[in-house]
Amino acid sequence: MPYKHKGIHDPTSMLKHFFTLQWKSFFRAASFKTNLAFKILMIFMALYFILVFLSLGVGSYFIIKKQGLGDPLRVVNRFMIYYLVIDLYVRYMFQKMPILNIKPLLYMPFKKSEVVKYSLGKTVFSFFNWMHAFFFVPFSIVLLTQDYDPLAVISWHIAVMALFYCNNFLNIMMNNLDKVFYPVVALLAVFGILQYKGWFDITTYTAPVFDAFFDLPYGPVYAVIPCLLLIVLIIASFRYFRKHMYLDGGLATKHEEAKTEDFTWLNRFGNLGTFLKNDIKLIKRNKRSRTSVIMGFLFILYGLLFFTGSMEVYEGPTWGIFAGIFVSGGFLFSFGQFVPSWDSSYYPLMMSQNIQYRDYLSSKWYLIVFATVITTLLSSFYLYFGWQAYLAIVVGAIYNIGVNSYLVLWGGAYIKTPIDLTSNKKAFGDKQAFNVKTMLLTIPKLALPLLVFAAGYYLISPVAGYLAVALSGILGYVFKEQVFKLIEKIYKKEKYKTLLAYKETS
Amino acid sequence: MISVHDITKTYGSQTVLNIPHLEIPKGQSFGLVGNNGAGKTTFFSLLLDLIQPSSGKILNNEVQVDVSEAWKPFTSAFIDETFLIGYLTPEEYFYFIGELRGQNKADVDALIGGFENFFHGEILGQKKYLRDLSKGNQKKVGIVASFIGSPEVVILDEPFANLDPTTQIRLKQIIKDLASNKDVTVLVSSHDLIHVTEVCERIVVLNKGEIVRDIQTSPQTLKELESFFAG
């Protein structure tokens, strides 16, 4: 049979190709086994969220009613603006962009518009979209059973779901627009605080918008607006992608203008300064490390859950220490955890250059110590919640410096997953987390200080509890030399395996 | 300077390198040629202690490379882009390597000043990070960085690949100049027989992990190599 040119006009065969590609990229990934474990865990996470959303969807009507907060629908509408913005934030952080992997398809006999359609269409089925249905569908059903007007409920439901889909496309177009994105989130946080304090309530202005979708007789008419908006966004993002599907356009990796920096003030640290300079540049200039560090500093706020008494399960002094470890150790956990993977892309250089492991490790250690001290100073506002709260943080910081700083460096020797510095999408929950050895190392990181504290607190006196934790930190610091020798040995032993692992996937 | 004793490297049942004996005297310019998979990069990686030998040992100036790290101060290499730090500018990278090798900024500036011709105005002061440079320009940076701090052993894996013709010609001159210094041992691998015969005094041919030719370069060498590879 003669060859028949059909590829370009046959979307179904093209779809088939795309799906087989996707399938192969999943099963043939170099680290398929760990990947699978990771994916299974992700499924469990997803199930967990589904369950939470479902029970909220079913239960929130009755909970709100019982609390006497007013009409449950109006209450939900009040907080809708926050829900939407937080959803956008979560998407921005975690939802994968559809443009990945389409480079090799550009010159293939598919119409470009088909590729764009497929890539955008794929996002519609993303978990980030349908998870909201688990809340809104049962919630709307409950509303119907509670004798709300069916037409009003349906028009409200459709309008709100359309808004969440709008988020989906907004996120796609917003990708990599940090300059727009962070101010918006900051603004929302400010509004949140203002509302919490009762100074200014933005929801009095936004709630009527959502109410309008419900209130008859014009609800269904207003509900058309978000649907139209959605259509506009779909068309806009389609056009946007279609237009930018060139190697030097939307598919190009963005180049920042580089500036040579000296950091001469670090020269006084000698060899150590050389590495510190590099680490600072590493953090400043790479998306992934920057995100990790920012998240690390956000841990400072984690203590609010404990010390404001807003979470009942977290009351009790022992949890204070737990909070102290996290508040002062944000950087340690988010950045320190992944030493030496930060240097994975040039590890062969580091291993063949004139470098002593000792200097390399020390510089990372000092970085962790500096960051811990700074965080501890920054979190001094916890004094507002009483001196015990801040004492717990200071004691946690001492333990972090004296013990946990070694433990993260030690654990790092076993983490052999290379880090792609330029990509952000795995910043949270990478498969590294599933290394048995690193899991075991979290026990002394978190559980041990709690035990030490509880022992001192309940057996002797409250002060003894804090003292015991601080003392174990100081003790760890005293043995720095010995511990570093040990860690150095482990790094040397793991060197070849690490080099190989970094090579395989990078 | 470098002596290899019974070195083998096997992966599973496959032996990728097997060199019973090899001596590279100080000051020699040594060329390594072979087809893909002949073991060139494996040999260099063993020399730099980036992989472990299955048996045997390599001595670099009397230092056994997988036992002591004392070879590092006088040895430098550029193997591939994993020797570059992508988020640094070329200048910062040179200074970083310089600091590791005990060279201050002025020393480094003096050295890289001598390579302006080689850089062809595309490296210094470009306001670009290394990761944003083209492959060829990245290579130029890596090669020049390996000259920082007067190393006694310089190892370059495929230095001519990815370079434009002008740069290849300039690089040949640079390597020749380097080799004329009798304190510096230069090890170069290449797929390009012409380049390697031009810059190396001695050429060793690897085939499937074994040394099959060991030639002192002469006017006949190129012919000899060509007839060998023509099979």
Automatic annotation (TrEMBL), chain B:
Domain spans labelled ABC transporter: 2-225
Domain of life the protein comes from: Bacteria
Keyword line: ATP-binding, Nucleotide-binding, Transport
Protein name, as recorded: ATP-binding cassette domain-containing protein
GO molecular function: ATP binding; ATP hydrolysis activity
SUPFAM superfamilies tied to this protein: P-loop containing nucleoside triphosphate hydrolases
InterPro entries: AAA+_ATPase, ABC_transporter-like_ATP-bd, ABC_transporter-like_CS, ABC_Transporter_VariousFunc, P-loop_NTPase
Transmembrane segments: none
Transport among keywords: yes
